[in-house]
Amino acid sequence: MKGRDLLRDYLAGHLTRGDVQRKLTGRAKESRHLLPIMDADRHGRHFLSDLQPPEGAAERLTQVILSPDLSSTVFQENKQVGRLQKIFDLMPFDVVGAGQPVSKSKIKKGKIEKAAPAKIRRSNTKTANRKTTNKKGKRK
Amino acid sequence: MPSLRLQGDRVSKGHEEIRISPDIPEKVSEWFSTAATADRIPPFFVREWLGQVLQENYRLFYGIGYGYFHDPSYAEDAVQSAALKALQKLRQLKRPQTVLAWFASITRNTCLDLLRNPNSRAAESLDEVSCSPASNSIDQVRIDWQRKLLVEINKLPENQAIVVRLRFLDDCDLGEIAERLGLRKNTVEVRLHRALEKLSHSPCLRALKEEYL
Asked: Which sign does the torsion angle of CA B132, B137, B141, B142 carry?
């Protein structure tokens, strides 16, 4: 008997698993790896064939899809704007010196005076914070 | 090697003719061909078609949700949320023939999102449901096995999982699965074989076999 016929008989329930394994010899031995696959298929179909959804669930789903007020709930623009974005939107654009950039050639020609960088005065922190008293509170 | 010839929605391979698309109204296919420029809200006839397709295959999608949440009401909620998501993104569906596989992916992703979100009702209740003591009735044992099987199926890659779901839940043969998913029969055969091989190695199926053989 060929391996295929044996497996068919096993599927039909005419043979037990042990019988099939015993009879699958020679070349047909290669078909043995199909037995667990066939078992998985049979058990899966047996257990899941009677899985039932709640009554009327499919109809409720169709109602959700066909409901006329769907556009207002599902398709409305609900683009969320962050808090920082809101602040920036409210603020007027008043950054100093944010005009057109001045070209270098114009500066060279002297048409526009190059603004001298403002000097940053160094504060004399050393003198200002110098300790005038020692630990005991006496003046040096 | 036999040549492939495409005729409308049919492919003929030698003498054998394989139908590769489910019935789609002409109006709906037209809308999908211009969907990129169409209105954001799908028209009523497209929604009607989608509703009909989902209703006919509801067990398939419910099975996905039930595998994740182990609770009928949460599974139903998940499928409804997935349907709303699908409506929003319907214009992005390139081939309406593959609507089943497309919606199955959306349902799966929706379930995963709901589980990941710590504030969602479903995520909170999952522990309670799975830890609830099982009664000794035969039905409860069967329900437990169903849950375990669905969990194992959900662990498979989506393209294999949907083939197995159609096989287990709707008892479809290879031709029917190919027709419903818009795939070729050979592709379905390979995917089903790989999926069943993986499932047969899973501890759930092994335990099931030991108990019932």
From this structure: negative
In this complex, do A44 and B199 lie within 8 Å of one another by their Cβ atoms? yes
Chain A positions touching B51 (Cβ under 8 A) are 61-62, 65-66
Work out the burial of residue A94: count CB atoms within 10 Å of its CB; fewer than 13 is exposed, 13-18 middle, 19 or more buried.
Answer: exposed
Is residue B148 over pLDDT 70? yes
Global pTM reads 0.67
Of B140, B141, B133, B154, the residue nearest B202 (C-alpha): B154
DSSP state of B92: G
What value does the mean pLDDT take over residues A111-116?
Answer: 55
Give B133's pLDDT tier (boundaries 50, 70, 90).
Answer: very low
Rounded distance between C-alpha atoms, residue B67 and residue B44, angstroms: 32
pLDDT for A5 beyond 60 = yes
| C-alpha distances out from residue B164 to A131, B50, B158, B186, Å | 84, 23, 10, 15
- Interface touch B212/A45, C-beta < 8 Å: no
For range B136-158, the mean pLDDT: 83
Q: Work out the average pLDDT over B8-33.
A: 60
Of B139, B78, B88, the C-alpha closest to B110 is B78
Rounded distance, CA A45 to CA B170, Å?
A: 9
ipTM for this prediction: 0.75
Q: Which residues of B touch A43 (CB under 8 A)?
A: 149, 205, 208-209, 212
User: 3-class DSSP state for residue B36?
Assistant: coil
